[in-house]
Amino acid sequence: MMKKYVAEFIGTFTLVFFGCGTAVVAGAQVGVLGIAFAFGFALIGMAYGIGPISGCHINPAVSLAVFIADRMNAKDLVGYILSQCAGAIVAAGILAMLVKGQLAGYDIGSGGLGQNGWGQGYLGAYGLSSAILFELIATFLFCVVILGSTQEGAPSQIAGLAIGITLVVIHIFGIQITGVSVNPARSLGPALFAGTKAIAQVWLFLIVPSIGGALAGVLFRSKVLEK
């Protein structure tokens, strides 16, 4: 069991460290496309690196979808979520240490740590309703791709590629809206280090993606989308 939890810790660490790290350190140079590919490629790498051990959920919303679809037990659900959140928090903490080492100085309060958000002053300045709608639909569709491409009879050898590409597309579309969460752990880690506003808004990224994942799980549990 511990192998699964260690794998989920490492996988989520990788996603947050390289995804958010690219946004913070190289975002101005690589732009939206570069950040989107950083998140997607990190996921693809981990899908083949830890997928055979844990399934590479690296996302509490995905684990919830898998649980509701009746593909994992409650004990693993709790263990996965705790491991994912721990991996995201450690990654964000190390990223904070790294950027503070910039010789010219780096203020996380103003420069950010790749945290998610919405409203005036955040990227495209979209409102709360847009943030909720995007995160709900994006997470739902993301989990549909994950559950569909990993079900029995699907070409599972290329599932990691399909899932990673989907995450890239989601980021290209949604970075200006919320910075793209679709992953409560990915949002929690940076928020804890990014300051008051990020912490005040993190509730949306804990709740809404979880609902999106749960809805996808219901469709597969009810056999609507099962092969």
UniProtKB/TrEMBL annotation:
Would the keyword Glycosyltransferase turn up in this protein's UniProt record? no
Gene Ontology terms for molecular function: water channel activity
Write down the InterPro entries for this protein, in alphabetical order: Aquaporin-like, Aquaporin_transptr, MIP, MIP_CS
What is its subcellular localisation?
A: Cell membrane
Going by the entry's taxonomy, the superkingdom of the source organism is recorded as: Bacteria
Q: How does it sit in the membrane?
A: Multi-pass membrane protein
Spell out the family assignment given in the record's similarity comment: Belongs to the MIP/aquaporin (TC 1.A.8) family.
What is the name attached to this protein's record? Answer: Aquaporin family protein
